[in-house]
Design goal:
heterodimer, A: mainly alpha, 21 helices, B: alpha+beta, Alpha-Beta Plaits, 4-stranded antiparallel β-sheet, about 30% helix
């Protein structure tokens, strides 16, 4: 007998392989995806009690193929059915274990093709994420809905809409042309990072199960890294996730309040993740062109390698932010750059950098600009302005734990003055 | 991001509508409900009873009082809301603009606070 957790791990591993095989055979991504999802659900119910079949992949493929045939049969009135059924192998064939040799081979490339499909540029980020988690991650709609705190019907609609969109684009089940591949891979990485962050920012209470998203993002990024070991940015993204996630045990208190990096109990950091992240990054940096994920990972690595906050190699971090600002400029990078500049050159240097953001409408009203400025003003000893800044940031944030943290900082300065 | 689209109405303006216009308003809500559901953005929708049914509750010095009528007397009142989960603030504004009351009175778009956060 196999435990439920083991079964679900196995199913999620097999999900993209089975879907890939099916889509290559029948081409109808949306119908195949539904059929695989039903097969996964059937397995999740049957296997823990009845035991995992000898050929789990073949079992899933058989059940999913049958569902597909059932679906087509029930649409008998439709003309399209004729062509589809004619094109497919007789369902009986799937029952024989050696019917299709290709089915027995791990379809390593299919995972990547599926990811490219799910992260199609026609889809919004939220739809890419939802579809990726279902089609490649093998999560159920209910699980995804729970992780994103929306009703199952809402998530179900989002997924089916995304599949319709893909169908409408006429995308075929194949890797994107070489000329588009770099851009499309960037979209895949972005979606994976979005999944990671969605889980990482969870703090406590009703959001706690969202942390599953973090491990799911790491699992999927590992798979991409296995398929594209020479891509430095994929390695960089995986390192960034591992290094960032290594801080998770220390970044919140049991009541869900946030602990700033400088105050975290570093003995709680996940050393295995730090070691793995640093090794991955070292390897990547030595043989691939530099990119923004690698640089961000390098910055987290410098923080992670400091035994105490006061040991942090800020000049190194500042140098990395300067580089990052050059190759991938964006206002959020400037904000962090300002913090590093303040730590190395003094608060005035950081505040000067922040001043350049006041005219940037992407960030001018963002709570983080107000929060960072307040922090640097506090460093500079201007407590009244710092307090006003923390209060402004507390009003602007839409995160309850951040608001609480910012209100605390403001209150601390009020108490300090009294 | 989740946004709440608060529908503020002016009862006088509603009463001035012809039956046909009122039907159109309802159809507009049905259409919005359908479109936002199909796009996978609608999380929840609530219609509130008229403020004539409101009770305002206060506790002062441990003593509870309940008085009929709203907390704030105004020409407009909150008639209901749609809770949406959408890609951006711009999209939330676009959704709000497609609710028929936006043409009659006004909608307020407000982000919903999250439990998640990033340490600084």
């Amino acid at each position: 007998m196999t435990g439920g957790a083991e079964v679900s791990e196995l199913l999620r591993e097999l999900a993209p392989q089975v879907l890939g095989t099916l889509v290559r055979r029948h081409a109808q991504f949306d119908a195949c995806e539904d059929a695989v999802q039903e097969a996964l659900l059937a397995a999740a119910v049957q296997w823990p009690g009845e035991g995992t079949p000898a050929n789990p992949r073949g079992w899933l493929l058989t059940v999913a193929s049958r569902r597909l045939v059932d679906q087509w049969r029930s649409e008998e009135a439709r003309q399209r059915r004729e062509a589809s059924v004619a094109a497919m192998a007789p369902p009986g064939d799937d029952l024989a274990p050696a019917a299709d040799d290709a089915d027995q081979l791990p379809d390593r490339d299919d995972t990547l093709t599926l990811l490219f499909m799910c992260c199609h540029p026609e889809l919004t980020g939220a739809s890419q994420v939802a579809l990726t988690l279902r089609a490649v991650g093998g999560l159920t709609t209910a699980e995804i809905a729970r992780a994103f705190l929306v009703p199952e019907t809402t998530m179900g609609q989002r997924i089916s809409r995304a599949k319709q969109r893909i169908k409408a684009t006429g995308a075929t089940f194949s890797l994107p042309p070489a000329a588009e591949r770099a851009d499309r891979l960037r979209a895949v990485m972005q979606a994976l990072y979005l999944i990671f962050n969605e889980g990482y920012t969870a703090t406590s209470g009703p959001d706690l199960h969202r942390t599953e998203l973090t491990s799911e993002a790491i699992r999927l990024t590992r798979a991409v890294h296995r398929l594209l070991p020479d891509d430095g940015e994929v390695g960089g993204l995986l390192a960034l996730m591992l290094l960032t996630d290594s801080h998770r045990p220390a970044r919140t208190r049991p009541d869900g309040s946030l602990v700033p990096l400088a105050e975290q109990d570093r003995s709680l950091w996940n050393q295995d993740f730090i070691r793995e992240g640093v090794a991955l990054l070292t390897d990547t940096l030595s043989r691939a062109p530099l990119g923004p994920y690698q640089l961000q990972a390098a910055i987290v690595a410098v923080h992670s390698e400091a035994p105490e906050a006061k040991d942090t190699d800020w000049p190194q971090i500042l140098a990395l932010y300067r580089l990052l600002e050059r190759i991938a400029p964006n206002p959020m990078v400037t904000l962090n750059h300002a913090v590093a500049a303040a730590m190395v050159l003094g608060p005035k240097a950081g505040l000067d950098l922040l001043a350049t953001l006041d005219a940037d409408e992407r960030v001018a009203r963002h709570h983080r600009l107000a929060a960072v400025r307040a922090h640097l003003l506090e460093m500079a000893g201007d407590h009244a302005a710092a307090r006003a800044g923390y209060q402004l940031a507390a009003r602007r944030t839409t995160s309850i734990p951040e608001q609480r943290y910012l209100q605390e900082r403001a209150a601390r300065l009020t108490a300090g003055d009294g | 991001m989740k946004y709440i689209l608060l529908i503020h109405v002016n009862p006088a303006a509603l009463e001035a509508l012809s039956e046909e216009e009122r039907d159109e308003l309802l159809r507009g809500h049905d259409a919005f409900h359908r479109a936002a559901s199909e796009s996978g953005e609608l999380v929840d929708a609530v219609a509130l009873a008229d403020p004539a049914n409101t009770v305002t509750v206060r506790v002062r010095g441990g003593i509870e009082t309940a008085t009929d009528g709203p907390y704030v007397e105004a020409k407009e009142h909150l008639a209901g809301w749609y809770l949406v989960d959408c890609e951006s603030r711009e999209r939330a504004i676009e959704l709000a603009a497609s609710i028929p009351d936006a043409r009659l009175s006004a909608l307020e778009v407000r982000p919903v606070m999250t439990q998640g956060g990033t340490e600084m």
